[in-house]
Design goal:
By secondary structure, the chain is an alpha+beta fold. It contains 6 helices and 13 strands. The longest helix has 30 residues. The chain is extended and about 75 Å long. The model has no long low-confidence stretch (mean pLDDT about 85).
Length: about 240
């Protein structure tokens, strides 16, 4: 212990003599630890503790492909999403889209939070049970409906005092009062890492939009359908 204390005192004196080096080292270590922790969380969530949904082997993602280059776009348009909903190989095609970061206004200032828009049936269809509160309904996505949102467990604990106190809380998002109606469990986040979800409607004028390719389709294969068969049917559509 005496040797350890001597080493610590020597290290402290050395760091005090070079404050710029000390600050730089601390910042680099903090960034490195933060990045490593984030990567570990994503890998752990995707590979060690995968998305906890009903019948995960039937879950598929639906997106566009650049046929000439064989590249996946990763996203699709509202018009194509509606066309894909007619595929016999798929059940309950839903969608989500990364939103621009929402601005959360609190008494101590404003901050950005990662927001996602999702069709009302997304989590019900893939079988995610909420930790608290209720899921979206189709009425939540209708024009003029009360502004509502789901939040992640992480956000509920960090900003709202825990999941038990979350449902029914009112937040001010993008300058608009929004009611938190439910909490998504950590193993049910889609996509991983979002803070909150708001209802998405792809009906009306939006349904004919072929240019806005920012939506990810999520569906389950019908019983007896294969991935290869579903892919061939979507290519034909």
């Amino acid at each position: 212990m005496d040797a350890l204390l001597q080493d610590l005192r020597y290290a402290w004196r050395s760091l005090r003599r070079a404050p710029l080096f000390t600050v730089t080292s601390v910042v680099i270590l903090a960034l490195g630890i933060g990045v490593a922790s984030a990567h570990f969380g994503i890998v752990h969530h995707l590979l060690v503790a995968p998305l906890h949904v009903r019948e995960p082997k039937r879950l598929v993602m639906v997106s566009d492909r650049v046929v000439s280059r064989g590249e996946l776009r990763g996203y699709t348009s509202p018009a194509r999403w509606h066309a894909f909903r007619g595929a016999r190989s798929l059940e309950h095609l839903e969608a989500y889209a990364y939103d621009t970061d929402a601005v959360l206004q609190e008494t101590d200032g404003s901050r950005s939070v990662q927001s996602v828009r999702s069709t009302p049936e997304l989590f019900r269809v893939i079988g995610v049970a909420l930790s608290a509160g209720r899921d979206f309904t189709p009425d939540d996505a209708r024009p003029g409906a009360e502004r509502v949102a789901l939040v992640s467990e992480r956000f509920a604990h960090a900003r709202l005092g825990g999941t038990a106190r979350t449902a029914g809380r009112m937040l001010r998002l993008d300058g608009v009062p929004t009611t938190i109606i439910g909490v998504l469990p950590s193993d049910g986040e889609l996509p991983v890492g979002a803070d909150l979800w708001r209802p998405l409607s792809l009906e009306g004028e939006v349904a004919r939009d072929r240019e806005d390719r920012s939506f990810v389709g999520v569906a389950s294969l019908r019983p007896g359908a294969t991935l290869e068969g579903a892919r061939a049917e979507l290519v034909a559509i």
